[in-house]
Design brief:
Helix content: 55-70%
Order of helices and strands: HHHHHHHHHHHHHH
Distance between the termini: 53 Å
Length: 219
């Protein structure tokens, strides 16, 4: 699709045509693609806006960063906010403070899961521990459990001991799924305290927790 076709398709009433046009922009340079992508960041169709956020993440310019930041913070749909967070993470360290701030401000489970996963891959142990600790108090169990699993990324970093301290405390959680996640995560740590806590979980009253703690030994 050439640029004139793309421009025409972006004005079509059929959102599928607009989606096709946005997808076609990946073949064009940032100076052409970014302004057209930004022109559709308030499209009435959330799927179009999600495609815009995805496209902006492939065009690492100051303009695309600013647009993604606005979409992550202010878009009315959490799917779009989540995609904008994913795309912002592609900019590297410069995005980290914005992702952390949004994590503190945005309580939506999908946005928080996206930010947890993004920061885990960015080599920022201090910030990763910060969002994980907040996630432990989230109202959504999915976010809590994801934060436990994400602590595995702190193995071998300056926050390893802090991560282990949290895991040891969470090993006594009343939640069976939480104790399962703790058992699975502890196996990523080559540490006496981790091994001792795993030994404790192998005596857990719930057989699912015991199975999770024993899994590697059996295999």
């Amino acid at each position: 699709m050439d640029i004139e076709e793309i421009k025409a398709s972006l004005t079509e009433a059929d959102f599928q045509r607009r989606l096709q046009a946005i997808a076609a922009l990946k073949a064009h340079d940032a100076e052409v693609a970014v302004p057209l992508l930004i022109s559709k960041k308030r499209d009435p169709e959330f799927l179009v806006r999600s495609f815009v956020a995805m496209g902006l993440g492939k065009q690492l310019t100051a303009e695309s960063f600013t647009a993604l930041l606005e979409m992550m913070q202010f878009d009315r749909d959490t799917n779009v906010q989540s995609q904008a967070a994913d795309s912002l993470s592609l900019f590297g360290q410069v995005a980290v403070p914005y992702l952390v701030t949004t994590f503190h401000q945005n309580k939506n489970w999908l946005v928080r899961l996206s930010i947890l996963a993004a920061i885990a891959e960015m080599g920022c142990p201090d910030e990763l521990l910060e969002v994980c600790v907040e996630a432990f108090d989230d109202q959504d169990a999915t976010v809590q459990e994801a934060a436990v699993e994400t602590l595995a990324f702190l193995q071998g970093t300056n926050q390893q001991q802090a991560a282990l301290s949290h895991l040891v405390k969470l090993a006594s959680s009343a939640s069976v799924p939480m104790r399962i996640r703790v058992a699975t995560t502890l196996k990523q740590f080559d540490d006496p305290e981790a091994k001792a806590t795993l030994a404790q979980l192998r005596q857990d009253p719930d057989h699912q927790v015991v199975a999770a703690a024993l899994e590697d030994l059996i295999s």
